[in-house]
Design a protein that fits this description.
Length: 422
Amino acid sequence: MQKWILILVSCAMTFLLVSCRQSQTIDQQATAAQKLIGLSFDKEKMDTLAPYLERNRAGFDSMRQTSIEESVMPALQFNVFPRGFVMPKGSSSFTAPTAQDNLPLSADSIAFLHIPELASLLRSGQVTSRQLTEMYIARLRKFDPALHCMITLLEDHALAQADRADQELAEGRDRGLLHGIPYGIKDLFSLPGYPTTWGAEPYRDQILDETATVISKFEAAGAVLVAKLVSGALARGDVWFDGRTRNPWDTLQGASGSSAGSGSATAAGLVGFSIGTETLGSITSPSNRNGVTGLRPTYGRVSRYGCMSLSWSMDKVGPICRSASDCAIVFNAIQGLDPKDPTLIDAPFIYPRQKKPQEMRVGILQKELKEDTTAASDHIEAALALFEQVGIVPVPIRLPETVASEAYDIILRAEAGAFFDE
């Protein structure tokens, strides 16, 4: 038993030794590693450990001699569902919202319309996709110097997609509500011929020869990609290689991250909608900060192929829009199985738009809400008051005591460290 304990400890210590100075002896490195992990072995045990440490380090060194493409996931099957939970079966059921009549036609007003309203203008011939695209490009050029929300403007690419959308709509080939509507995407997603910078200086000129599945799905839906939007450096925070992305309602304040560009650009009416990613708050936080609506989907609902990984077991892809209905429209277009992403689950998307508020169940974490002293708690209290007005009775729920939320960031850092090890 003691031998196996020493082997396990040697494996843990090797992680610390691989980055130590090569000028040190194995004993010196092991002594330093012991202090870091709170252990103390006598010389006899250290003599027993030393061969394992040397062998383990040689194994790590050999691993680093093998180059693995960034798109390769580790061999894991991560199941997020509680024991006994059964995913609904059947076909997706999605009825798109309709737009009101007498929509505004000034450029400043159109820029802030919801997806069904933009779609209505396109189908009535009041605007063309090219006109919408040119309007959003002009707004990106005008406001980005103050907001720092855009990394790459895809003008030629966008105008070509807009012209194709106009031609198809004129011929009666309607691909759905997103057809002809300009959008932006967080610059973690690859598109051949254009930089995919991950918001980080070392990757500023990186061009990846693969089209992210989410972008392919939007192409199939006829949407128009106008810009690669800011990701905080390597999907952390709202600071990237060209500064800090700003909240359009208060430019002295950062947009929060890491989907900072998506939150800021959507709030400022620089795109019709946008795509972000969330590992630990990167959709919900910028949505809250910039006053827009974000959807952090269940893990495994949207393909991550062609998107930078921060944490394989935690990353999600989702929309940032002007309303929950818009998020549903976008999510409906991008969710579903993809053979290039083995983590996806086969489940229908059932959007209960016709459901009465009183029929909905809304859970509330009362303990966490009472302990929350941030400005977000005021928003939650206001939402609860609104629920009460329309007849929704929130159901108090408690998280299991075993949930250690502080550990999530440790998991994230460990997986991110593996992804960026080279």
